[in-house]
Amino acid sequence: MEPQSDRNLQMFLTSYALVGQYCLGVASDTPETVARAFPKPMSHAWLTKKQLVVRNAWEISLNDLDVPGVSPNDDVIIPPERSSDAPVLELIRWKAKQADKRNKQKHKKRKR
Predict the structure, then answer these.
(1) How far apart are CA 29 and CA 97, in angstroms?
(2) Which of 16-25, 31-40, 52-61 has the lowest mean pLDDT?
């Protein structure tokens, strides 16, 4: 999923700066319904958070908690001065290597 702009992020950050907290929740619906309308939030599954850390994707390294937020095929924007040593480069290489291993294992299982 790639947004066409950072408008939603900027609106969220502006709201967070004003209120100082945000809520995380879950929603449930069928794929057919979601295609037509926003999913129905579950009222019993909300977390109120007061701390928010915003980072650039290029700053995420192999041992960060934010690793799941980067996939091997992401087109991460890296500042020119960090194009050869950005922490995310090692992470992307590692994730690509792990994906290759999984694919090879699947291929071996199919041959049996």
Answers:
(1) 35
(2) 31-40
